[in-house]
Amino acid sequence: MKSLNTIIKNHWGQIVALLSNYLQDLDLAEDAMQDALESALIHWQKNGVPNNPQAWLFTTAKHKALDKIRRAQNFSCKQQQYQQLLELDTQTDTKEDDFAIPDERLRLIFTCCHPAIDSSVSVALTLRLLGGLTTQEIAKAFLLKTETMAQRMVRGKRKIKQAGIAYKIPEKEDFPQRLDAVLKVLYLIFNEGYAASCGDKPIRHKLCDEAIRLTQILFKICPQEAEVKGLLALMLLHDSRKKVRYNQQGEFVPLEQQDRNLWNKDQIEQGIQLVQSALKQKQLGSYQIQAAISALHCEASDFEETDWHQIVLLYDELLKINPSAIIKLNQLMALSHIASVQQVLNQLSFIDDELLKYHPFYVVKAELLVKVKQYDKAKTCFKKAITLCHNTTIKNHLSKKLKTIKDCNA
């Protein structure tokens, strides 16, 4: 059912977050949501989609969870734990059509990002519960096996349950120890939306919107945090260009070919104001630097006017904070516009061992090899990139590039 799929994409995180807070049990909340979706497939097909489908799903999931508690063999052991919940349910008679689901998503993000939980587990768990990403999609984003990622999430849920971690937004004095993980979660949710790791849709607009909305809420909670400003600026600046990254035929449009008149000027203005405000605080962080790089792209009147020298310098600062091979790759892409191609190719050789499963690495290398007319090596790199890429639209774009090289070398 198309309508059910749309509702799942749009409201999965909101309903699961509310269920988690209500039940105080992540596994039970997710299982109940799955049961409710199965019921929806049957009932909605017979009776049509209800007036308030989100409320229908929440109410059904809640009742499924309570039924599961009642049926549990060890119910007598858990009776004291759940008795208040069961009594509350019998006292309330919610009318679905009048029901408005409160927003519990930010609360759940902070729960998943408790300092007792490893940050990599926090990110994966939140992407699953709030972003609605599959375990396979999250594993690909982390360049890990699906089984490994599934085990991480099981450990995360178990830790939350065993440690009795509260489902609440922490007090302001506890923000610093959780904020980094929270920002990383929001950043990865946006990234998966802006450049989907797999599937036939290159951009998952709802994920982008969700990440921006949650970051805006976080900004309202702590408006003086420079990195929160930086992340929100980065998202807005990237998001301003998303509508022209693909043409009407669904084909990828490189940055140098995009119609800059169609970029969202309001988002660009907001993003630039935020990053300027953050940088004035002199508490430099990685999101602020990335936002500053994105701002330089947005401020350039055309691709040729881009301040590549400044971008390369900003990447130097970013590498001091986060010495990542992927960031180094991005810097080399920028450097290729102002340095010799061979110089950049030589530097690529120092990071290739770390990026063997990262398809953009092979794309960058292939495009540089084309510039020095090493067509056979370029074709090999494009073929490797196509093999590693799991997004249908990007694969098609790379296949066209490969064909162009073959034609040039014919």
State the gist of this model.
The chain has 410 residues and is mainly α. The protein has helices at 2-23, 26-47, 53-71, 75-91, 105-112, 119-129, 135-141, 146-162, 175-194, 205-221, 226-239, 265-280, 286-299, 308-321, 325-335, 341-348, 359-371, 375-388, 392-408; strands at residues 198-199, 390-391. Among the domains are: 2-94, no CATH class; 321-410, Tetratricopeptide repeat domain (Serine Threonine Protein Phosphatase 5, Tetratricopeptide repeat).
- Read across the widest sheet, the strand sequence of neighbours is 1-2
Provide the structure class: mainly alpha
Average pLDDT rating: 85
Pattern of helices and strands: HHHHHHHHHEHHHHHHHHHEH
- Beta-strand residue fraction: under 5%
- Overall geometry comes to globular
Q: How many whole angstroms does the radius of gyration measure?
A: 24 Å
User: Percent of residues in helical segments?
Assistant: 55-70%
Largest sheet: 2 strands, parallel
Oligomeric state of this protein = single chain
The number of helices is 19
